[in-house]
Amino acid sequence: MSKAIVHTHAGDDSDGKIWGIEGLNILLILAGLILSVGFSMMLLRQQAHSPFVSFGAGSLPLVLMVAYVFGLRQGKPKSYDTDLLETFTCGTAWMPAHRQSRHPLYPP
Question: What DSSP element (H or E) covers 80?
Fold first, then answer.
């Protein structure tokens, strides 16, 4: 008798998805939500602003985090966001130098 082979994906290297959002991205969005609620409550408690201003300003952390996740992380290759930030700050950081010396002790 031959046994049937059951293929499982137990060895896959997957971060998983929650509501279509990959891996740790959901934690970033939840952190933005917690910061937004806290900031909104802090502004609302001061009673110096209207509720619309308090919730409008308080929603900024959530909006920025959602824009970051869906703009630079979701569906992109690993470390795409850090490579892009490094390229903006340092130029073409991950590209080879245009004028590279043949020997480390003798400059071009």
Answer: helix 80-90
